[in-house]
Write a structure and sequence with these properties.
591 residues, mainly beta, Immunoglobulin-like, Lipoxygenase-1, globular, Secre_tail, Por secretion system C-terminal sorting domain-containing protein, Ig-like_fold, Omp28
Amino acid sequence: MLQLTTNHIEMKKKLLLTSAFALISSLAIQSQTIVSTTPENKNVILEEFTGINCVYCPSGHAIAESIRSSNPNDVFLINVHTGGYAIPSAEQPDFTTSFGSALASQSNLTGYPSGTVNRHVFSGLEMTSGGTAMSRGNWQSAANQILTQSSYVNVATQANVDVATREITVLVEAYFTANGNSTNKLNLALLQNNTEGPQTGGNMGDNYVHQHRLVHLITGQWGEDITTTSQGSFISKTYTYTIPKDYNDIGVELSELEVVAFVTEGNQEIINGHGTDVTYSSSYNNEISLFSVSEIEDSCDGHITPEITISNLGNTPLTSLIIDYNINNGTTYSYTWTGNLVLAQNETITLPEQVASIQQSNIVNISIPTDEDTSNNTNSISFNTSLEGTRNITVEVRTDYFPGEMTWEIYDSAETLVASGGPYVGNTNGSGGGQDAFTTKSHSVTLPQADCYTVKLLDSYGDGWAFWDSTVPTAGFDIYSGSNLLYTIDGSNFGSELEIAGAFRANSTLAVDQNDLKAITIYPNPSTGKLFVSNLDNFDISIADVRGVSVLTAKNLKNNTPINIESLETGVYFVNLKSENTQKTIKLIKE
């Protein structure tokens, strides 16, 4: 029989207490899962202020990338699209965010590209005395200085996206190896890589690859307060955020995301930071999302080439997929895609061209086989036909401040030039202004045949049809058939040339005299039940709602024949009248 003395019991208590303390200490150390507790030098957080229309910005991108690649895991880039060069013109993507303007303002930048390194003021390198913004030629020197400085806080981060819910979970840890400010701020930025788009000076057209693009600040404009900042303090924060399908209509590629976390003193000085690519998980095994359908331009001839994006939300790689589609619920076409799409990856697929009988308003319906989530297996997109007029058209050019740079051309479907105009009268010394600046130049054009026509706008200087002063008339290009507007576009900084394929259609009709056209009317208007057309004989009528959907048609009508519209709902409609030599559209109000 074993007998325990008091000494034995006390010794056992001490051993238990020692073991318990060791276990608690071990758990405390293990709880610091990703951040180092050893004093380290600062990492570089380089915020570059850039824009898609900035000619020198690609040089800035290259310099920043060189600094990062020379210091892997120690340099992290955040590209902030902001300022005048980031404002998109027609057809350009909008990479700006609601955060960019304030970030740029606090840097005191005076040009683009510019950048801040840890938002620190580097005397002699700054654009503005006392500011943090620097020209691209000074970023390397500033980064070298930061990398040699000790930091009082270490930062580490991990991130995972549940692709089924699009929820990102980010763990950020900070460990203070020395005393910090009484209050520091923790910031968390969400970035997207490998986004193709335009870039002036990039020499890649619309296929320039934009990297480290800021899309969101998860902790807000200036971060969240950290109040436990003494030496030995350990901070662990977990953030969740549901990622939208797009930012400013630019799709989010879940497989191209990264996060950068950093600790600041106030809204400016960055003490240290860390970034990481995002990992992915899913509760699905076999789940494909018909993510989006690209916009279809107005069609002239019924030739439709749909483009879709699919996303793999399941753990099983996708190697083939049957895609069904139709136009206006007509013939169903099938296309089999093959490839290798893994979890969180997207794939853009161009479906084979189809020809359909199209209406003024049309819809393309697309579907993929049902899977674990049936809510994302169908999608659709609407498009309109190009408007049709007579062969007699009027072209109106709204000039900008440099009319001598502006010309235009119209081509038929065989790419034969059928009409052109400009340049207009500007100052001969090359400066802006002149006789034709900010005026409307009108041209009467008779087109050779019924066809689908393409418009080209050209600018000899290469900066499009635009002027920075919003108080002056907007430049642009308008086409009329009689009093009916067939096509209009406002000017923009499109560069040297903007082509609008299938801008409008012409039928075989030559327009009648404008006075005769004005005499054609409908009455009563507004109408409650019956409608009459005066001063027109042997005509067809088509009435469409505001969506362009035809709601009533009739053929071979005589002058003042009663037309019953009692079945139409109250609202606004458009009445299209067409005879052998005449076409006119009139707005109708049904009461």
